[in-house]
């Protein structure tokens, strides 16, 4: 595997991946498991397939740019990674993962490596990080709040309809009311714009 300018290895795992080879018969789908190396760099995730039993060698099987990875899901069969390929969405399942030291190529042990790999991919790609929490919507203004703001310590005599100008009783609660004369809808929040509709005592 040739590294690009500025590319560096972040983590390596020995694992198995789903690979395709020419079917041996009509009943054979061509898909199977193959051992190899899963290499995470600061730019991409690459699977290198084992090429021989006696002589260790690796062949580039596939790569996913970190920015193209959409999900990394841990399940009972391994780690499922999905990404947007050049022409279509792609995915692969990795299992039997074992940490490797990138310099010595020796196993370093460890447990729950599929979960650790998913967490690392999430942090590195940022493409499927948890969305920020939704902002709390502002509270809906009600007539009781308007009354306290408009006449602190005083009293309000009524509410004037903005359409027919008739005066109605000021609502003690809720956030909307209908004029009993012309059925115009009046919302409490509108009284911030039209304070002249509030009739104060005195």
Question: What does it look like?
Answer:
By secondary structure, the chain is mainly beta. The protein has 2 domains: 9-125, PH-domain like, CATH 2.30.29.30; 143-200, no CATH class. Helix content is 12%, strand content 41%. It has helices at 113-125, 143-150, 190-193, and strands at 9-20, 31-41, 44-50, 58-65, 69-75, 78-84, 89-100, 107-109, 156-160, 167-168, 176-178, 185-187, 198-200. β2 (31-41) and β3 (44-50) form a beta hairpin. It is rod-shaped. Mean pLDDT is 78; it is low at 127-131.
Structure keywords:
3-stranded antiparallel sheet; mainly beta; single chain; 8-stranded antiparallel sheet; 3 helices; 202 residues; PH-domain like; 2 domains
CATH class of the largest domain: Mainly Beta
Described by the principal axes of the CA atoms, the overall outline is rod-shaped
Q: Which spans of ≥5 residues are poorly predicted at pLDDT below 50?
A: 127-131
CATH topology of the largest domain: PH-domain like
**Gap from first CA to last CA:** 87 Å
Could you say which structural class the secondary elements and strand pairing correspond to?
mainly beta
CATH architectural group of the largest domain: Roll
Biggest sheet features:
8 strands, antiparallel
Integer tally of domains? 2
Q: What is the helix tally? A: 3
Rg (C-alpha, Å): 33 Å
Helix content estimate: 10-25%
Mean of all residue-level pLDDT scores: 78
């Amino acid at each position: 595997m040739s590294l690009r300018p500025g590319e560096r290895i972040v983590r390596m795992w020995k694992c198995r991946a789903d690979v395709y080879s020419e079917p041996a018969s009509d009943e054979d789908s061509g898909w199977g498991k193959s051992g190899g190396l899963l290499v995470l760099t600061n730019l991409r995730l690459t699977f290198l397939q084992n090429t021989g039993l006696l002589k260790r060698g690796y062949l580039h099987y596939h790569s996913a740019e970190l920015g193209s990875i959409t999900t990394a899901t841990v399940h009972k069969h391994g780690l499922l990674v999905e990404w947007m390929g050049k022409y279509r969405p792609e995915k692969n399942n990795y299992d039997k993962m074992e940490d490797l030291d990138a310099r010595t190529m020796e196993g370093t042990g460890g447990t729950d490596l599929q979960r650790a790999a998913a967490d690392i991919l999430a942090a590195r790609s940022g493409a499927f990080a948890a969305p920020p929490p939704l902002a709390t919507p502002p509270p809906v203004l009600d007539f009781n709040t308007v009354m306290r703001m408009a006449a602190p310590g005083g009293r309000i005599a009524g509410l004037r309809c903005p359409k027919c100008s008739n005066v109605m009783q000021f609502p003690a609660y809720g956030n909307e009311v209908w004029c009993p004369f012309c059925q115009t809808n009046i919302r409490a929040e509108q009284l911030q714009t039209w304070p002249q509709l509030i009739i104060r005592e005195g």
